[in-house]
Amino acid sequence: MANSNYFLLQIITVLLLSWMALSDLQQRKVPNIAVILFAVVVGAVTPFGQGNLLICGVVLSLGMLAFHFRLLGAGDSKLLAVCAYGAGDQWASLIFITALFGGVLSVMCWIHNWTVQTGFSSKRPVKTVPYAVAICGAAFATLHYM
């Protein structure tokens, strides 16, 4: 792939990941159209492989199971599956970094809620963790073409 096309796909990826992270942060929703566009970009850049497809399927299945039990959003599950496909051999690093970033986000949400409960903040308590932020952060580190 020519360098200019490669750079363009990187820019598109940054924009899509930023869109999904900001949307989850503000609205607690990951837009399906953004995930679909991201899947098209990742699919165009990532060589097809049965291993990648298997990891994507397993991550999607486990993510949908987590969604069923209200542990993870459906958009987060789909986003993580696409990222796992694009991460290729680095899928375990993607999961680890996502968990690490998610843990930091969870602590930040807990601290925020503590400040609300103790009266240090007049804002509303946070009920859910915007996990797409953690997933997108991990994607920047592990997608093979970034």
Automatic annotation (TrEMBL):
Transmembrane parts of this sequence: 33-48, 53-71, 91-116, 128-145
Keywords: Membrane, Transmembrane, Transmembrane helix
Listed name of the protein: Pilus assembly protein PilD
Prepilin type IV endopeptidase peptidase domain boundaries: 11-106
A molecular function (GO) term: aspartic-type endopeptidase activity
Pfam families, A to Z: Peptidase_A24
Assigned GO CC terms: membrane
Keyword Membrane: yes
Superkingdom per UniProt: Bacteria
Origin species: Vibrio tarriae
